[in-house]
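Consider a typical record:
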Amino acid sequence: MDTNLDRLLIIHREKLLESLGKTENEINEDVNIILEWFKTQKHLPEPLSRHAIARWLVLTKFSIERTKQLCDMYYTSRSLFRDVYDCCDIEQPEQKLCIEKVFYYIPLPKQTRDFYRVDVVAFQDFEYENYNPYRMLAQVHMIYELAMHKDFEAGDIVIIDFKHIRKSYVLKTTPTSLKVLNIFLEKIWASRVKGIHFINVPTYAETLIKIARTILKKKLLNRLYVHSNIENLYEYLPREILPKDFGGDEKSLAELNELWKSELEKNSERLKHLQKLTVNNSLRTEPLINSDYLGYYGNFKKLDVD
């Protein structure tokens, strides 16, 4: 059955797997291995969908161990980042206001020719006195919660439009909140970012880009592009993919935002249920993989750098 989500996220699963030299049978075998592993992980609340696991396998270049880590962090993160997850409820008045009037996070419907998803991050023309970067991150994550069971992409290309960002928003976006965003990108969403394109950047927002450069991995630093005009963006992305706001052929950001809001509202009970699914560390058989960000069992204190 055709649904809004089918139209919001057009995928080419068979062609993508073919381009990566994988067959459905091969990826299904890997998914089965992950699902069998889930049965041995008593600390995890429930297995993920076959589609979500297959998608993570693609994004990790078919690394079974890395995919296991993502499955673990997907649930472990819920107790680590309550500032984000406590906002993952579209029925909260403040969160609903953010989606309706403050912030856009839009995965554009059409993929690039090499099967990358283009994601637009933008601010609406609205002065929000209670701006909280974690609410913005929660909005992204709620959409991700739906997309991970539908989308199937080689990676992401991100467009960040600062046209309507307020100076007060910049001042409230701390280095810690940007580090949390980076953890979500790498450790929870498994984003393979091909490029980040900044447009309409006012002088006072350049600070955010400078901070980001101190946090991002070196490989990604070489994939940051700041465009002085929208025409430069067309050298990287075709107009048929881009929204009308950027001179493209796709629906406007406002139209796409309404469709995503509708999907979030239809799935609000499921989203609230997901936020309650945390790990039981007393049943964990092995420590969480140590990392520069989290340490054993997710020592979040290392992020307190403000």
Notes: The mean pLDDT is 91. The chain has one domain: 1-306.
